[in-house]
TrEMBL record, chain A:
The keyword RNA-binding does not apply. Residues 1-22 form the signal peptide. The lineage of its organism: Bacteria, Pseudomonadati, Bacteroidota, Cytophagia, Cytophagales. This is PAP2 superfamily protein. It holds the Pfam family PAP2.
Automatic annotation (TrEMBL), chain B:
It comes from the Bacteria. This is Protein involved in meta-pathway of phenol degradation.
């Protein structure tokens, strides 16, 4: 029996040792708070994207730091800090001094959570998510790549404009942060000379919460909780007094109303069409080219994904036809045959590296989509380059508007040419990845990725080569996955790069050096 | 006349007790092999389902249709000593679906090595109480991807199992057996570094939930201990994990649960060396995040003795 007891202890020890060598599975990006490489004192003069004249957004003149009102606020801040709970301390560390990162991560998490394609009903029909009845079933939204690209564009643009306005008033009023006014207050983050009024943290929080609630109405309560936690952390970290925060919120409110106005009229509400409209689009292509894409699921989905996303208003490209790709090779042509044979070769003889690339970039259902993948790259570059929140928001804003523009351009091309998927055109062909519910040409992954790489290469030129390699890999991953022909990927990459240059050209002239 | 029958029966029993009966075995049964005995088994298993549990909701999916899984498993058992046996196995698995456009997977799955120890045999009433343990370790071989569910051929994680096996073997051939195991599972490496499990996870490792595994059987040894017949019950319950999301594919982090009932029969040779055969059938009766599978298996065994 003693032998038995000993061996049990031995096994428990082995299990414990094994558990301790497991890899971490973190839920957010952990980074050390950093000193901003630059404060961008002139940031208030940069070109905004939604706001036409920032002088129209007014905030109250702040009380001086030696006023009784301000001193009372300071006292309340000190009391609040002295009563901080362990959870509140953790919140201060979590939100960090660049909270654009955290709100971006929350947006990606929402995207993954809602990126589930509605299944069929018992009678073989499909019900689409309905914003008028968000609970569903199915719940609203289905955060597919076009939806997510647009969600991220509005989020980042609202953050960026709110921060430009915030910066404008910060350096107009120059009211210092509580930790600079009162030695008894510690800054939880590296100190700097950034004026505290209006609070940029509060502007980010308010703009982000409102845009994400618009995009994910069922998450309103969760987002409200995050928002409150974030605002509290601004006080607890010694960055702001309540009046700083109120001013930041009031700026964000103005920006959010502009963003909502644009979003309500940008054409997204019409992107998912009726079957009649969808059929007429398919038939137009059939008459022009002699082919049309059809959904290959069982039961068949009557309408592809957002046939009119190509009509949605773009951010930087005046007319989507400027960036429409040239016609794909005709089905049965020599080029088509050779690219189809390439797919069959990969399918019957896939290397470990090809498989890894296909999976690494899958970013399919239940994930943050390719736009999300590029937001993760942007986040890592932002931290690596120690960007302040305004600079970070600028990167996200130009990248995400370029990504959405790339999506619009790609969808215009997809439904104009209505090109069949490999599983339709190659008899008996099976794939390692699921075939999406929209035409093949051009590849969305390729287009999204090339546009993002173009913008990130402008902001982080020392890593331009890496971004280009990633964009190429994202494009080719779809060929390995069996769901795109090489010409879908090649032309998609060209298209994305072209769309990206429109955003870069705007960024070059926005006044930021 | 009656007396003659009685004598013949007695003689048979005495004779039997001197002739070794070669016995193949599994990690969860009560069977032990004497020192120096080696048994090779080749098993084929076919399993299919056309319904699966998405969380606790039993559904069909026309893009899968009927899902088929085939396994060929070579297995080797040996008697290190009378009280300690080793069992090792390495299955080859292939999967395919009758519907949809996605390709099935195939390859070598996990190499498993287990040690069975006979701790106790105690005479109680008209039978013997048995207690054994089985400790096993398994890990994936090759480079199969666990993240291709439902097509993937395994969960892709190392596993350590601690199993206690208790039984009561009656002199009349009836056997009652229950085995309970704790299966500790480690992580599986996937080919992406972000996934959703009740929230964002920024990692290329998934935690595969540990599980409780129960086997129960009522068996009967017939034809002079050469034929074993069993009615079986098996359950596996992950202790943690998430559910498959609506109309989404499964993933290795899921809280998988299954219980099944079945029958098992095995024919043992009555010699030091030679072939035996086995066959079994299992029907899944309840589950969670698993297919409602019907399974049958066939196997042949070859047994011999060294030194």
């Amino acid at each position: 029996m003693k032998k038995y007891t000993n061996s049990s202890w031995g096994l428990i020890l082995v299990l414990w040792l094994l558990s301790s060598c497991l890899e971490d599975t973190p839920n957010f990006y952990e980074f050390e708070d950093y000193t901003f490489n630059n404060l961008d004192e002139d940031g208030g003069s940069w070109q905004t994207i939604l706001v036409s004249n920032l002088e129209n957004i007014n905030i109250a003149t702040p009380e001086a730091t030696n006023s009784a009102a301000y001193q009372a606020e300071l006292a309340s801040v000190k009391e609040s800090i002295s009563k901080m709970s362990a959870a509140e301390r953790q919140a201060v560390r979590y939100w960090s001094n660049n909270p654009t990162i955290r709100w971006n991560e929350i947006a990606l998490e929402m995207a993954a959570k809602y990126n589930l394609i509605p299944g069929p009903n018992a009678d073989g029909t499909y019900t689409l998510p309905n914003p008028a009845n968000p609970l569903g079933p199915p719940p609203f939204p289905f955060a597919h790549p076009p939806y997510t690209s647009r969600m991220l564009a509005y989020l980042s643009v609202a953050q960026f404009d709110a921060l430009v306005v915030t910066w404008h008033y910060k350096f107009q009023y120059n009211r210092e942060a509580p930790y600079r006014v009162d030695n008894a207050i510690q800054s939880a983050y590296p100190q700097n000379q950034l004026p505290a009024y209006p609070s940029h943290g509060a502007a980010i929080a308010k703009a982000s919460k409102e845009i994400l609630t618009l995009m994910f109405p069922l998450e309103a309560a969760f987002l409200e909780e995050k928002y409150k936690e974030h605002l509290k952390s601004l006080v607890h970290s010694g960055q702001n007094v309540p009046s700083d925060i109120e001013a930041g919120i009031s700026i964000a409110e103005e920006i959010v109303s502009l963003a909502k106005q644009r979003a309500s009229t940008d054409g997204m509400a019409q992107a998912q069409t009726s079957k009649a409209v969808s059929d007429s689009i398919a038939n137009a292509a059939y008459e022009r080219f002699g082919w049309k894409w059809e959904n290959t699921e069982t039961p068949q989905r009557p309408v592809g994904l957002t046939p009119l996303f190509g009509n949605v208003r773009m951010w930087h490209v005046p007319n989507v036809e400027e960036v429409r790709s040239p016609p794909p090779p005709a089905i049965g042509s020599a080029q088509f045959q050779s690219d189809a044979q390439e797919l069959q070769r990969y399918a019957s003889n896939m290397t470990v590296t090809q498989r890894r690339i296909a999976n690494w970039w899958e970013d399919g259902l239940n994930s943050y989509t390719p736009p999300g993948h590029w937001n993760k790259f942007a986040k890592i570059s932002i931290v690596k380059n120690k960007l302040n929140p305004l600079r970070a928001a600028r990167v996200f804003a130009y990248m995400n508007t370029a990504i959405m523009d790339a999506g619009v351009a790609c969808w215009d091309t997809k439904y104009y040419y209505h090109y069949p998927r490999p599983v339709e055109s190659i008899p008996g062909f099976k794939t390692i990845l699921g075939t999406p519910n929209f035409p093949a040409y051009t590849s969305g992954h390729s287009t999204f990725s090339a546009s993002a790489a173009e913008v990130l290469s402008y902001f982080f030129p020392e890593d331009a080569n890496q971004f280009e390699v990633w964009a190429e890999e994202a494009a080719v991953s779809r060929i390995y996955g069996g769901i795109h022909y090489r010409f879908d990927a090649t032309e998609g990459t060209k298209q994305g790069k072209l769309v990206g240059t429109y955003a870069v050209n705007k960024a070059k002239m926005d006044g930021a050096m | 006349m009656k007396k003659i029958y009685w004598t013949v029966a007695m003689l048979t029993m005495v004779y039997m007790s001197y002739v070794p009966i070669a016995k193949g075995q599994l990690p969860f049964d009560e069977i032990m092999m004497p020192k120096g005995e080696i048994c090779f088994a080749g098993m084929y298993e076919h399993s299919s389902w056309s319904q699966y549990w998405e969380g606790t909701y039993l559904r069909e999916n026309a893009n899968i249709g009927t899902f088929n899984r085939q396994m060929f498993m070579p297995m080797l058992a040996m008697g290190l000593t009378k009280k300690i046996n080793l069992i090792t196995s390495l299955p080859y698995i292939s999967t395919e679906a009758s519907g949809g456009t996605q390709v099935g997977q195939s390859g070598l799955q996990d190499l498993s090595i287990s040690m069975k120890v006979d701790w106790l045999q105690h005479r109680v009433g008209s039978g013997r109480i048995l207690f054994l343990t089985n400790t096993h370790f398994s890990r994936p071989v090759g480079n199969y991807l666990s993240d291709y569910m439902p097509f993937s051929i395994g969960v892709g994680a190392p596993e350590i199992g601690l199993r206690g096996i208790g039984g009561y073997k009656m002199d009349n051939g009836l056997v009652f057996r229950i085995a309970a195991a704790y299966l500790w599972r480690g992580q599986t490496e996937i080919e992406r570094n972000y996934y959703y499990q009740d929230g964002s996870v920024y990692s290329s490792f998934m935690n595969v939930p540990s599980a409780l595994n129960i086997h129960g059987a009522i068996g009967y040894w017939a034809f002079e201990n050469r034929l074993r017949l069993e009615a079986t019950y098996m359950s596996l319950n992950c202790l943690t994990g998430d559910d498959i999301r609506a109309y989404n594919r499964p993933q290795p982090t899921n809280k998988m649960e299954v219980s099944q009932i079945g029958v098992w029969t095995q024919y043992y040779i009555k010699a030091d060396q030679g072939f035996g055969a086995l066959a079994y059938f299992n029907q899944t009766i309840s589950g969670r995040n698993m297919g409602k599978a019907t399974t049958f298996g066939l196997g042949i065994t070859y047994q011999f003795k060294v030194n």
